[in-house]
Design goal:
The protein has 240 residues and is an alpha+beta fold. It folds into 3 domains: 1-40; 58-199, no CATH class; 201-240, no CATH class. The chain has 4 helices and 11 strands. Strands 1, 2, 3, 4, 5, 6, 7, 8, 9, 10 and 11 form an 11-stranded mixed β-sheet that branches. The longest helix is centred in the N-terminal third of the chain and has 38 residues, at 2-39.
Length: 240
Amino acid sequence: MRILITYIALITSVYLAEAQNKNAYQQGISAEENLRAISNLSATSIGGIGFDTRYKGIRGSPMLFDTLLISFLKISNQDKYIQLESNIDLVSNSVHFVHPKTKQMVALSGNKITEIIISSGNNDLIFRTMEGSLLKKDAGDYVFYQVLNDDPYQLIKVPSKEFIEADYKQAYSPGRQFDEFNTTYKYYIISDNGTINPCQLTERSLAKLFPDKKKIIDNVTKGKSYTDKEAMVMDILKNF
């Protein structure tokens, strides 16, 4: 009887050992298969979870310039200009500058600004503000515009920032892997009576806006070739 019990115990232990080895072997196979499966996973794999590494972040910024520039700021109801290092935020319509005393970054809303002159390279760029509603923009916002000439008929240039979202996840998407702030410009002419007219930088656009001045436009541009269209329009306007 004792021999039988010992024999049964021996067989049982051998069976358990074989089962454990078999399970260990099967687990090893499963692990190897899992590794192969994982190596084939992507962010678009069906039935699996992967990390989407296609997004490349944000290009550009809400700022008009790439860095802070030497500027001369004139605040509403003030006569003097303040020298600062500043930049224009075209999304919030404000000026960001380094406070002269605290050296901290400060933002000042456009509705508190009369004029800001920014030194860029060898040029002094003059920016002023007006109510956005005058340019068919959001009411209440004060929009920055650049003054290109100082004649009775003024050519102004209005910069803005368009935010373009990344688009790469859907089928037939353009595959744009980054968000981007894109700078755009629109031009207007402020007439001598204060009327604001949207315009293109072409002779035809000016002739359409001011049909009574078509002869002047033709005489100014006759025989000339302008590579700088802003310069062409300013050349015409100073003869109005």
